[in-house]
Specification:
The chain has 123 residues and is an all-beta fold. Helix content is 0%, strand content 48%. Strand 5 and strand 6 form a beta hairpin. The mean pLDDT is 95.
Length: 123
């Protein structure tokens, strides 16, 4: 059974940091691109970052460039999203998803999704 489990969300003050984890079970992440997406109340799901399976190339939404860093640890079958300088507009439920090998931030092409983890940035 393919499963992705996110963790690491929480409440943080503006300017703070969090590291999200996406752990896979039932399959090996090596062969998949992993994407992080987020959805705020009343808004559509948007792509945040992704990392390819082949060469580890990465992509970021303009809104998070320079603040978020995606990485993968294939030995732990886990992908991370390090977030710094968090802003209130980063508040959302964050999801990870597995998809075709290349990093493309279109949620429609990702087939396996986690349940999400809440990130709230507020003073």
């Amino acid at each position: 059974q393919l499963q992705l489990v996110e963790s690491g969300g929480g409440l943080v003050q503006p300017g703070g940091s969090l590291r999200l984890s996406c752990a896979a079970s039932g399959f090996t992440l090596d062969y998949y691109a992993i994407g992080w997406f987020r959805q705020a109340p009343g808004k559509e799901r948007e792509g945040v970052s992704c990392i390819s399976s082949s060469d580890g190339s990465t992509g970021y939404a303009d809104s998070v460039k320079g603040r978020f860093t995606i990485s993968r640890d294939n030995a732990k079958n886990t992908v991370y999203l390090q977030m710094i300088s968090l802003k209130p507009e980063d508040t959302a439920v964050y999801y990870c998803a597995a998809g075709p090998p290349l990093c493309v931030l279109y949620p429609e092409i990702f087939g396996s999704w986690g349940q999400g983890t809440q990130v709230t940035v507020s003073s």
